[in-house]
User: Fold this.
Amino acid sequence: MTTNTNSLNSTNSTNKKMRAIAAPSWGAPDVLTPVEVDRPEPGLTEILVRVHAAGVNPVDWKIRAHGTIVPWEPQTPILGYDVSGTVEAVGPGVTLFAPGDEVFGMPRFPEQASAYAEYVTAPARRFVRKPEALGHVEAAALPLAALTAWQSLVDTAQLRSGQRVLIHAAAGGVGHLAVQIAKARGAYVIGTARADKHAFLKGLGADELIDYTTTDFATAVRDVDVVLDGIGGDYGDRSLPLVRPGGHLVTLPSPDDLPSARAAAERGVHLGWTVVEPDSAGLQAVARLVEEGKLRVEIDAVLPLEEAAQAHARGEEGRTRGKIVLRVS
Assistant:
Protein backbone atom coordinates (compact mmCIF):
# COMPACT_ATOMS: atom_id res chain seq x y z
CA MET A 1 0.00 0.00 0.00
CA THR A 2 1.40 3.40 -0.92
CA THR A 3 0.62 6.49 1.12
CA ASN A 4 0.94 10.21 0.73
CA THR A 5 0.86 11.90 4.12
CA ASN A 6 0.93 15.38 2.61
CA SER A 7 -2.63 15.36 1.30
CA LEU A 8 -6.04 15.07 2.90
CA ASN A 9 -8.14 16.53 0.13
CA SER A 10 -11.52 15.14 -0.87
CA THR A 11 -11.31 12.12 -3.11
CA ASN A 12 -13.18 11.53 -6.34
CA SER A 13 -14.02 8.52 -8.40
CA THR A 14 -11.38 9.27 -11.05
CA ASN A 15 -8.21 9.17 -8.98
CA LYS A 16 -9.28 6.15 -6.90
CA LYS A 17 -7.73 7.67 -3.79
CA MET A 18 -9.33 8.25 -0.41
CA ARG A 19 -8.72 10.07 2.83
CA ALA A 20 -7.91 7.98 5.91
CA ILE A 21 -6.36 8.17 9.35
CA ALA A 22 -3.41 5.83 9.94
CA ALA A 23 -1.06 4.90 12.78
CA PRO A 24 2.43 4.70 11.26
CA SER A 25 3.74 3.74 14.72
CA TRP A 26 2.24 2.77 18.06
CA GLY A 27 2.03 5.33 20.82
CA ALA A 28 0.11 8.39 22.03
CA PRO A 29 -2.92 9.80 20.17
CA ASP A 30 -0.72 12.19 18.18
CA VAL A 31 0.71 9.27 16.17
CA LEU A 32 -2.58 9.22 14.25
CA THR A 33 -1.82 10.74 10.88
CA PRO A 34 -4.00 11.93 7.97
CA VAL A 35 -3.03 10.06 4.80
CA GLU A 36 -4.21 9.56 1.25
CA VAL A 37 -4.29 5.92 0.16
CA ASP A 38 -5.60 3.79 -2.66
CA ARG A 39 -9.31 3.16 -2.47
CA PRO A 40 -10.03 -0.56 -1.93
CA GLU A 41 -11.97 -2.66 -4.42
CA PRO A 42 -14.52 -5.29 -3.37
CA GLY A 43 -13.50 -8.89 -3.88
CA LEU A 44 -15.55 -12.06 -4.04
CA THR A 45 -18.65 -11.76 -1.77
CA GLU A 46 -17.54 -8.30 -0.62
CA ILE A 47 -19.13 -4.86 -0.77
CA LEU A 48 -17.53 -1.45 -1.04
CA VAL A 49 -19.07 0.95 1.48
CA ARG A 50 -18.72 4.72 1.31
CA VAL A 51 -18.28 5.55 4.98
CA HIS A 52 -20.45 8.31 6.42
CA ALA A 53 -19.39 7.79 10.04
CA ALA A 54 -17.03 5.57 12.04
CA GLY A 55 -17.41 4.66 15.70
CA VAL A 56 -14.51 5.01 18.13
CA ASN A 57 -14.01 2.20 20.65
CA PRO A 58 -11.59 1.46 23.51
CA VAL A 59 -10.03 -1.32 21.43
CA ASP A 60 -9.03 1.35 18.90
CA TRP A 61 -6.92 3.36 21.33
CA LYS A 62 -5.52 0.23 22.98
CA ILE A 63 -4.29 -0.98 19.60
CA ARG A 64 -2.94 2.47 18.77
CA ALA A 65 -1.02 2.57 22.05
CA HIS A 66 0.32 -0.96 22.24
CA GLY A 67 0.11 -2.62 18.83
CA THR A 68 -2.21 -4.95 17.02
CA ILE A 69 -3.98 -8.00 18.35
CA VAL A 70 -3.51 -9.91 15.10
CA PRO A 71 -0.69 -9.84 12.50
CA TRP A 72 -0.98 -6.76 10.30
CA GLU A 73 0.44 -6.48 6.82
CA PRO A 74 0.00 -2.80 5.81
CA GLN A 75 2.94 -0.53 6.56
CA THR A 76 0.56 2.27 7.52
CA PRO A 77 -2.29 0.68 9.50
CA ILE A 78 -5.71 2.31 9.34
CA LEU A 79 -7.67 1.84 12.55
CA GLY A 80 -11.39 1.42 13.24
CA TYR A 81 -14.13 -1.22 13.19
CA ASP A 82 -17.55 0.43 13.40
CA VAL A 83 -18.96 1.61 10.08
CA SER A 84 -22.15 3.18 8.80
CA GLY A 85 -22.46 4.19 5.17
CA THR A 86 -23.80 3.56 1.70
CA VAL A 87 -23.01 0.64 -0.56
CA GLU A 88 -20.96 2.00 -3.45
CA ALA A 89 -20.29 -1.26 -5.32
CA VAL A 90 -20.71 -5.01 -4.87
CA GLY A 91 -18.28 -7.79 -5.67
CA PRO A 92 -19.02 -11.09 -7.43
CA GLY A 93 -21.51 -13.29 -5.61
CA VAL A 94 -23.18 -10.58 -3.53
CA THR A 95 -26.99 -10.79 -3.53
CA LEU A 96 -27.91 -9.18 -0.20
CA PHE A 97 -27.18 -5.58 -1.13
CA ALA A 98 -27.08 -3.26 -4.11
CA PRO A 99 -25.42 0.12 -4.66
CA GLY A 100 -27.29 2.80 -2.75
CA ASP A 101 -28.30 0.59 0.19
CA GLU A 102 -27.56 2.07 3.62
CA VAL A 103 -25.77 -0.40 5.88
CA PHE A 104 -23.89 -0.60 9.16
CA GLY A 105 -21.68 -3.19 10.75
CA MET A 106 -18.49 -4.25 12.50
CA PRO A 107 -16.67 -6.25 9.83
CA ARG A 108 -13.51 -8.35 10.11
CA PHE A 109 -12.92 -8.10 13.89
CA PRO A 110 -10.34 -8.87 15.31
CA GLU A 111 -8.62 -8.17 11.99
CA GLN A 112 -8.78 -4.53 11.01
CA ALA A 113 -11.78 -3.18 9.13
CA SER A 114 -9.89 0.12 8.55
CA ALA A 115 -13.00 2.16 9.26
CA TYR A 116 -11.22 5.51 9.72
CA ALA A 117 -11.42 6.07 5.98
CA GLU A 118 -13.74 7.23 3.23
CA TYR A 119 -14.28 3.68 1.92
CA VAL A 120 -14.26 0.19 3.41
CA THR A 121 -14.51 -3.25 1.83
CA ALA A 122 -15.64 -6.34 3.72
CA PRO A 123 -17.76 -9.47 3.30
CA ALA A 124 -21.38 -8.50 2.66
CA ARG A 125 -22.71 -10.65 5.48
CA ARG A 126 -20.75 -8.63 8.04
CA PHE A 127 -23.26 -5.80 7.47
CA VAL A 128 -27.00 -5.34 7.94
CA ARG A 129 -29.38 -2.64 6.69
CA LYS A 130 -29.34 0.54 8.72
CA PRO A 131 -32.63 1.18 10.53
CA GLU A 132 -34.41 4.15 8.99
CA ALA A 133 -34.83 5.65 12.44
CA LEU A 134 -31.06 5.99 12.83
CA GLY A 135 -28.77 8.55 11.30
CA HIS A 136 -25.33 7.40 10.21
CA VAL A 137 -23.66 8.86 13.31
CA GLU A 138 -25.90 6.87 15.63
CA ALA A 139 -25.60 3.73 13.51
CA ALA A 140 -21.80 3.96 13.51
CA ALA A 141 -21.83 4.10 17.30
CA LEU A 142 -23.73 0.85 17.71
CA PRO A 143 -22.14 -2.30 16.22
CA LEU A 144 -19.13 -3.19 18.38
CA ALA A 145 -20.57 -1.97 21.68
CA ALA A 146 -24.08 -3.33 21.09
CA LEU A 147 -22.82 -6.70 19.85
CA THR A 148 -20.52 -6.95 22.87
CA ALA A 149 -23.48 -6.38 25.18
CA TRP A 150 -25.77 -8.71 23.21
CA GLN A 151 -23.27 -11.56 22.95
CA SER A 152 -22.37 -11.24 26.64
CA LEU A 153 -25.88 -11.04 28.07
CA VAL A 154 -27.90 -13.08 25.58
CA ASP A 155 -25.54 -15.61 24.02
CA THR A 156 -23.17 -16.22 26.95
CA ALA A 157 -25.24 -15.52 30.08
CA GLN A 158 -28.60 -16.43 28.50
CA LEU A 159 -30.28 -13.62 30.42
CA ARG A 160 -34.00 -14.22 30.98
CA SER A 161 -37.00 -12.24 32.13
CA GLY A 162 -37.14 -11.80 35.90
CA GLN A 163 -33.41 -12.26 36.47
CA ARG A 164 -31.22 -9.74 38.26
CA VAL A 165 -28.19 -8.36 36.43
CA LEU A 166 -25.36 -6.18 37.73
CA ILE A 167 -23.66 -4.05 35.06
CA HIS A 168 -20.39 -2.36 35.93
CA ALA A 169 -19.48 0.85 34.07
CA ALA A 170 -23.16 1.13 33.22
CA ALA A 171 -22.88 4.59 31.62
CA GLY A 172 -20.09 3.63 29.22
CA GLY A 173 -20.30 2.71 25.56
CA VAL A 174 -21.09 -0.97 26.20
CA GLY A 175 -22.71 -0.43 29.58
CA HIS A 176 -25.52 1.93 28.58
CA LEU A 177 -26.50 -0.41 25.73
CA ALA A 178 -26.30 -3.43 28.04
CA VAL A 179 -28.72 -1.71 30.44
CA GLN A 180 -31.28 -1.33 27.65
CA ILE A 181 -30.79 -4.84 26.25
CA ALA A 182 -31.23 -6.31 29.73
CA LYS A 183 -34.41 -4.28 30.28
CA ALA A 184 -35.75 -5.36 26.88
CA ARG A 185 -35.35 -8.96 28.06
CA GLY A 186 -37.30 -8.27 31.23
CA ALA A 187 -34.41 -8.22 33.71
CA TYR A 188 -34.01 -6.19 36.90
CA VAL A 189 -30.99 -3.99 36.21
CA ILE A 190 -28.47 -2.76 38.77
CA GLY A 191 -25.67 -0.51 37.54
CA THR A 192 -22.50 1.02 38.93
CA ALA A 193 -21.72 4.57 37.82
CA ARG A 194 -20.86 8.00 39.19
CA ALA A 195 -23.77 9.86 40.76
CA ASP A 196 -23.89 12.46 37.99
CA LYS A 197 -24.81 9.72 35.52
CA HIS A 198 -27.62 8.18 37.55
CA ALA A 199 -30.42 10.27 36.04
CA PHE A 200 -29.23 9.33 32.56
CA LEU A 201 -29.25 5.62 33.42
CA LYS A 202 -32.64 5.84 35.13
CA GLY A 203 -33.93 7.25 31.86
CA LEU A 204 -32.64 4.15 30.09
CA GLY A 205 -34.52 1.88 32.49
CA ALA A 206 -31.99 1.01 35.21
CA ASP A 207 -33.81 -0.09 38.36
CA GLU A 208 -31.05 0.44 40.92
CA LEU A 209 -27.82 2.45 40.79
CA ILE A 210 -24.70 2.49 42.94
CA ASP A 211 -22.20 5.34 43.06
CA TYR A 212 -18.95 3.39 43.16
CA THR A 213 -17.07 6.48 44.40
CA THR A 214 -18.98 6.48 47.70
CA THR A 215 -20.39 2.97 48.06
CA ASP A 216 -18.79 -0.48 47.88
CA PHE A 217 -21.00 -2.40 45.48
CA ALA A 218 -19.86 -5.66 47.09
CA THR A 219 -21.75 -4.72 50.27
CA ALA A 220 -24.72 -3.07 48.54
CA VAL A 221 -25.74 -5.87 46.15
CA ARG A 222 -26.56 -9.53 46.58
CA ASP A 223 -28.27 -12.41 44.79
CA VAL A 224 -27.74 -11.46 41.16
CA ASP A 225 -28.02 -13.91 38.29
CA VAL A 226 -25.61 -12.17 35.93
CA VAL A 227 -22.66 -9.80 36.31
CA LEU A 228 -21.29 -7.95 33.29
CA ASP A 229 -17.87 -6.55 34.19
CA GLY A 230 -16.53 -3.93 31.83
CA ILE A 231 -13.85 -2.69 34.23
CA GLY A 232 -11.64 -5.65 35.14
CA GLY A 233 -9.00 -5.62 37.84
CA ASP A 234 -10.42 -6.88 41.13
CA TYR A 235 -14.03 -6.31 40.08
CA GLY A 236 -14.43 -9.96 39.11
CA ASP A 237 -13.22 -11.27 42.45
CA ARG A 238 -15.40 -8.79 44.31
CA SER A 239 -18.45 -9.61 42.18
CA LEU A 240 -18.23 -13.40 42.40
CA PRO A 241 -19.78 -13.71 45.91
CA LEU A 242 -22.79 -11.73 44.70
CA VAL A 243 -23.76 -14.27 42.01
CA ARG A 244 -26.32 -16.95 42.74
CA PRO A 245 -25.42 -20.59 42.09
CA GLY A 246 -26.02 -21.32 38.42
CA GLY A 247 -25.45 -17.67 37.51
CA HIS A 248 -22.92 -16.10 35.15
CA LEU A 249 -20.04 -13.67 35.58
CA VAL A 250 -18.89 -12.26 32.24
CA THR A 251 -15.84 -10.02 31.95
CA LEU A 252 -14.80 -7.93 28.97
CA PRO A 253 -11.28 -6.47 29.43
CA SER A 254 -9.18 -9.65 29.78
CA PRO A 255 -9.47 -13.29 30.86
CA ASP A 256 -6.86 -12.45 33.49
CA ASP A 257 -9.57 -10.39 35.23
CA LEU A 258 -11.79 -13.42 35.85
CA PRO A 259 -11.90 -15.02 39.30
CA SER A 260 -10.23 -18.39 39.60
CA ALA A 261 -12.09 -21.26 37.98
CA ARG A 262 -11.88 -23.16 41.25
CA ALA A 263 -13.51 -20.36 43.25
CA ALA A 264 -16.29 -20.10 40.66
CA ALA A 265 -16.85 -23.85 40.62
CA GLU A 266 -17.15 -23.92 44.40
CA ARG A 267 -19.98 -21.39 44.13
CA GLY A 268 -21.54 -23.00 41.06
CA VAL A 269 -20.99 -19.87 38.96
CA HIS A 270 -20.24 -19.91 35.24
CA LEU A 271 -17.36 -17.71 34.07
CA GLY A 272 -17.08 -16.13 30.65
CA TRP A 273 -14.76 -13.80 28.78
CA THR A 274 -16.47 -12.25 25.77
CA VAL A 275 -14.52 -11.36 22.65
CA VAL A 276 -17.00 -9.75 20.31
CA GLU A 277 -17.44 -11.34 16.87
CA PRO A 278 -19.00 -10.09 13.64
CA ASP A 279 -22.56 -11.38 13.88
CA SER A 280 -25.26 -10.40 11.41
CA ALA A 281 -28.00 -12.21 13.39
CA GLY A 282 -27.04 -10.38 16.57
CA LEU A 283 -26.83 -7.06 14.75
CA GLN A 284 -30.25 -7.63 13.21
CA ALA A 285 -31.61 -8.26 16.72
CA VAL A 286 -30.04 -4.98 17.82
CA ALA A 287 -31.60 -3.21 14.83
CA ARG A 288 -35.02 -4.61 15.76
CA LEU A 289 -34.68 -3.21 19.28
CA VAL A 290 -33.88 0.18 17.77
CA GLU A 291 -36.90 0.00 15.49
CA GLU A 292 -39.12 -1.00 18.42
CA GLY A 293 -37.92 2.01 20.43
CA LYS A 294 -36.24 -0.18 23.05
CA LEU A 295 -32.65 0.77 22.33
CA ARG A 296 -30.96 4.08 21.68
CA VAL A 297 -27.30 4.96 21.61
CA GLU A 298 -25.97 7.95 23.52
CA ILE A 299 -23.48 10.06 21.59
CA ASP A 300 -20.81 11.66 23.77
CA ALA A 301 -19.09 13.57 20.96
CA VAL A 302 -18.94 13.79 17.16
CA LEU A 303 -15.64 14.89 15.63
CA PRO A 304 -14.47 15.13 12.02
CA LEU A 305 -12.26 12.34 10.70
CA GLU A 306 -9.24 14.64 10.81
CA GLU A 307 -9.63 14.96 14.60
CA ALA A 308 -9.27 11.25 15.34
CA ALA A 309 -6.38 11.99 17.71
CA GLN A 310 -8.64 14.26 19.80
CA ALA A 311 -11.31 11.55 19.79
CA HIS A 312 -8.82 9.03 21.18
CA ALA A 313 -7.56 11.45 23.83
CA ARG A 314 -11.14 12.13 24.93
CA GLY A 315 -11.96 8.43 25.11
CA GLU A 316 -8.87 7.59 27.13
CA GLU A 317 -9.96 10.00 29.87
CA GLY A 318 -12.54 7.37 30.84
CA ARG A 319 -15.31 9.88 31.58
CA THR A 320 -17.39 9.60 28.43
CA ARG A 321 -21.13 9.01 28.53
CA GLY A 322 -21.93 6.78 25.59
CA LYS A 323 -19.94 6.75 22.36
CA ILE A 324 -17.55 8.94 20.38
CA VAL A 325 -18.03 9.02 16.59
CA LEU A 326 -15.98 10.33 13.68
CA ARG A 327 -17.91 12.00 10.88
CA VAL A 328 -16.32 10.94 7.61
CA SER A 329 -18.54 12.23 4.79
Summary: The mean pLDDT is 92. The longest strand covers residues 46-56. The chain has two domains: 3-142+297-327, 146-273. The radius of gyration is 20 Å.
